[in-house]
Amino acid sequence: RFLGYVLGEDVGEGVRAAVHAAVKEQLPFCRPTRAMAYGEVYFRAWKEAASKVRPSLDDDDDKDAIGMHQSPLSGEEENLLKLETSCIQQLMEAAIYAAKPSLRNNLVALLMAFHAQKRHRGVDEMLNRLYAPILRRALYVANPFVRANAAQLFVDSFPLLDPDLGVKELDNVMQEHFKTLSDLLADDTTLVRKIAVQGAFRILAVYWDVVPPNNLSALLKRLVKDLAFDSSAQTIRCAVLEGLKYVVKHNPLSHQVLREAVKTVLPLIKDHSERVRLKFADLLLACKDVRAIKFFDLVPITQLLERIAAEQSKDVTLLLCRLLLNSFFPTAAQGSENLVPSQVSRCVSMVRKNADAAKKFYRHLPLLVDLNLVCRFAKSLAKTMANSAAFPPNKESDSPSNALRLLMREQLMDCVVSVWEAASKSIFKEGNESLADYMTGGFNTELLETLAKQDPTSNRMSVACWRIAQCLARDPKGRFDVLHFGPDWKPLFLGHLDSGDLEMSRLVFVTLVYGPPSTSASALALLASEMIYKPRATVSHGSKRKAGATSESQGQSGRSRAVLALELLNILLEDDSTRRLVCDRAEEMGITSQLEANWRSLAKPPHTNPEGDIETIGLMSLVAYFKIATLLHVSTSMPDVSEARAMPKLIEDSLRVLEPTFQPTVDPPNRVSAVISALLADYRTLNFRVPEIDAAPQSAAPVPIPT
Predict the structure, then answer these.
(1) 632 CB-near residues (< 8 Å, 6+ apart)
(2) 227 contacts 193 by C-beta, under 8 angstroms
(3) Which residue in 103, 180, 308, 357 is deepest, having the highest Cβ count within 10 Å?
(4) pTM of the predicted model, to two decimals?
């Protein structure tokens, strides 16, 4: 109030100038909220000064404005004119020609105090009079930044009218304004077009019912048919979608027209830009809250499900899942007995429409609804699948209906697994003991065995059951009995390993590692023992082997069991959830010692090994050995200098052992040299102190590490 009084009252030109200069010094560095507060000061000063002049202007019908006076100005009028020209108009001109975005934003925030008060008596006339000599000229200058600043002020102050004009004159001025807005939408500069798009939608939201129909239709056509598909900048496409959402939320009169406008921009749901797809999903969510617009009339449900299945962005997928939540997972009547059966039936319907979309939908479900509802649904769906009457098989085993039945069960089981994998961490958190008891009691070993045995020929069902068992085994209180679920785990694990099914082998192994300490130790010891090289069994010409028989060292996949075990180990080391489990006990269970023994065999004289197993096992062991050592080095704080040099020392020892076979200057390099060179290149990025042999010249062509 004091600053407003000093600026508004004629207390002395030097005082006003000093306050104005102090505000201008603060504007380049202050926050926009502080700039808005300064704007309130200037508006209060102008309002006080204008209130003293306004009565005299009202009494004189020949005086339309202060600038039109023919007689000498009174003291109040002269004071108001000086405030407007030396302070307010100066700030307007500074906002147009501001070079720094921060200064421009603060000046725009300051002037917003006047733009937001256009309904106050005299403000519209004052803005029109002060902007007239500077704004329109700035909208068409060559400098794009000046045009952008002027465009921002133009849309913020729209419309600039003299309230004393007649109807015809007002219509001409409005047509001129819309012509200027159309020119800004067609500007060559992206920033100017973006500001014009945002301003056009704000104008439509406020003045929808008074904009002439021809101007309204031309403006919407330019926005949703041209600028919505502007391939030169994603910011323009995003601005159009944000503007449509703004009008939908703030002007109910626009809903009937905007329903067709949203259908026009429907291809943006598949836009290559993630940000554009995110804005489109946000627009659909805004339309969902409007009674006059049904989102499923804008985008068919099948197309939304296809988009969910193909979407790679987690944020976009989450918004689309939120959009379909009430359709496929009703939560309104939480106390109703029919709620969970309705959720299960809609899950079946969603799987029939698009199984891949259903998996993604239920994977994101714990992020959208209460965890108790999710757990009740997962348990009910699993029990429904365990009930043979729910999916009765056909009496003919080779009937196509049986194949469809099995596919449906597999797809529904994938949904259960998706829910479990997404919610398991939250279920077993501290404070959720009752929920953990509920889920472990529902998903007991009997239920999982029933689900797996109902379709014994389906490997997909077995994988799903083991994935659920893996989630249950992570319970820190050990409510789930792993050995009771898989008592014959050793032949099961080795059988999948020999067949080359590394995914199933990983599931069985990780489930066991998460189990009791004795089971975990047995699984790790078994993996270490299977990494030992064993010569493949040979068959003499006079002997015959039974069909389907395989040796202990060679699996059904035709590869050595040691090679498959090392492949599994590398998969475990790449996975964030299993890396720590292996690394922490690798030395204790003999994994690192076996790996070292394997790669040290590379330094021995060449062996008669037609299959190349010795060299392959040695190289894979070297890669895994370095991974484990590096992970332990990076994840452990090493205050001791001797410990900090442990990793370079390991590299130096390895190179000394493998020196006979390490020939980095040979082109092309042999397999051992290629792997060591690649490892050295990887570890340089970790700022290790690499020994002297590291500086040896290498082959120009990078050689990938064999897996």
Answers:
(1) 583
(2) yes
(3) 357
(4) 0.76
